[in-house]
Amino acid sequence: MRHLYRALTVLGNYRAQRVMGIATLAGLTATVVIGLFVVPPDATQGNVQRLMYVHVPAAWVTFLAFGVVFIASIGYLKTGRIQWDRVAAASAEIGVLFCALTIALGSLWGRPVWGTWWTWDPRLTTTAVLLLIYVGYLSLRKVADSPVRRAKWAAVVGVVGFIDVPIVHESVVWWRSLHQQATVVRLGAPTIVGSMLATLLLGFVAFSLAYGYLMAVRMRVGRLEDRSAVPVSSLSAPRARRPRPADIPAPVASADVPTSRE
Amino acid sequence: MHDLGYVAAGYTITFAMLAGYRWHLAVRARRARRYVSTVTGRARGWRRRP
After folding, report:
1. CA A29/CA A32 separation, integer angstroms
2. ipTM of the complex
3. B42 lies in some domain
4. Which of A30, A180, A223, B26 is 20–30 Å from A191 (CA)?
């Protein structure tokens, strides 16, 4: 637990953040170029299958982000350190972003393949519930009046809300679903061509880097916002300003004061 | 050809959301930094000396 937190604080290092930003940009660019122009189109779905290279990694980052919320929430409930709460809040925000992106991309993929933008399929419905849970989590954070109460309530929701993640993943196995079953993370060999699998793995790496980068930036913002939210009296006093010549009163000429000539 | 529109829209949305969120974080950071520097009277790049 302590090592995980230390690893997350390293992400807050400005230089690490910069390197991660450049790596993210390079990874995403490579994913787009290879996914759009290098890998051949799918035999049955055609070009629209190219959405897989962003849709599946976005879903992976959603699970990763909510997994981090789960671990950080347990960390907060166990130790009571506010830093864990900051990690959970940052990860939940990014998780909501990627969850919304996953749904939007799935909808764009579903329209030409299934003939509909949205259907109440188990995978889609459980994903929508997942999004709502974490939007609720973020809303709850706005409602609580004290930082300790906010952290405690949010940690409980962060732990309980994570129950939906394995449900989303297994929904295509447990219920009859329009959504295709797992092709990579499954028992046995992946049912996907090598070049497509390699591009998909590149997408996973690029999106994971994007998550790490956004996490680093968001944690920095979280620290600043926490600092700006504390009462003014608890902030350290302003540094004393060196007196300027204009501040020093000029000597007053008086009859009592002897001059150097006398 | 029709499918390419969905693909282009998907990739555009992906980059727009990521870039939009990064911009949103930059705005929040700037606002918080400005607030802290106004309250403490320190310049924005100020760091505590060891």
Report:
1. 5
2. 0.82
3. no
4. A30
